[in-house]
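[Help] Beginner question about ligand-bound structures

Sorry if this is basic. My supervisor gave me a protein sequence and a SMILES string for zinc ion and asked me to "get the holo structure". I don't really know what that means in practice or what format the answer should be in. Inputs are pasted below exactly as I got them.
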Amino acid sequence: MNNYKYIGWGLAGLLIIIGIIVFSNRSSDSRLSNQPLNNQASDSPQTEADVNRMEFAGFNPKFRFSAEISEDLAVEYVPEIESLNLYEKDGDGDLRERSRIFIRYFEASQFLTLTTVDILQRNETEIHGHAAVEYEIRKKPGVANFPSQPSWRNEQHKLTDIRFSQNSPTTFYVFAHNPEYSENEFENFLDSLAFHNDQAGLKQPIDRANERVTKKPFGLYVEPGNSPVSPEKFTGFHNAVDYEILPGEENTDVAVYAICGGSLRQKRSTSGYGGLIIQDCEIEGQNVTILYGHVRLSSVTKNPGNYILPGEQIAVLGNGFSTETDDERKHLHLGIRKGVSTDIAGYVSTQSELNNWLDFRTYQPN
Ligand SMILES: [Zn+2]
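Answer (accepted):
No worries, everyone starts somewhere. Holo just means with the ligand present. The predicted complex, written as structure tokens, is below.
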């Protein structure tokens, strides 16, 4: 009987350890639980909501989307042709030949097909608001096999090209699928796509975000003597959303996450903000400049030009009333300026100037 007791305690201990691993994973910067590490699919514990959602930009930032992949598939990055191979985990033979979905990309201003293939069918469509074309193609006779690709790519098969944005040029993604792979599974995969410039690709900038907007929402007019914060040194319409700290967070690190996928443009210390991160993104087809103000610059490990995944931790909040916040209270100022802009204003003097800015709270990030 005693043996069972020991097993019982052993199990309890194991559950606690698993609990700690899951909890630390949730609260650290690995909110993208299925994000590949070292170009390998990660086997790290996953949060329930993110089960099987794969962030493909982790393999190569050209692939600016995530998708749910079924449990029997895994991902191989093919560096020589910058492609992604979704292959059957438990099949025989090499990974390339187990390929079910093969993903490529090209930069162009319009839909293109190779001159080396015959188009048997072409159908224009739309996927999550992105222009798309479904093709059935066959490599022309006498054309050499496509290098580094699975052999079914040299046979008749179907694929869907999807345009990333309305910018020209932009990126087009080619999702080809093995004729042996279920059409239904392929459709499910396409349905689950969340592009980094879509609402579905957006993430909250901070945990429990909605509870924190208690002082300065977007568009609020403030001036010294008439402001929810005191002392107030600014005057004008607040062109951003302020996220406050919660009780007990004064002296703890509060993580700040990228709301969208895009390159870090700048990180610097500047008047009014202290630490400021500027990121370039596209939201719903338009270029935007994201400002994360009052952050601790020494916590920012990414450098200008680095691609930041949506939901990736980029910084922690600066200490209140220090140079890290330019003597402001500890909080996050999240500004979204339309266009690729050098405007880093935190306030504007007229209501009409607010039209140059977006209110992040009008979106429903994940
Ligand atoms: Zn603010």
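A couple of things worth pointing out: The first helix runs from residue 2 to 27. The longest strand covers residues 117-127. Feel free to follow up in the thread.
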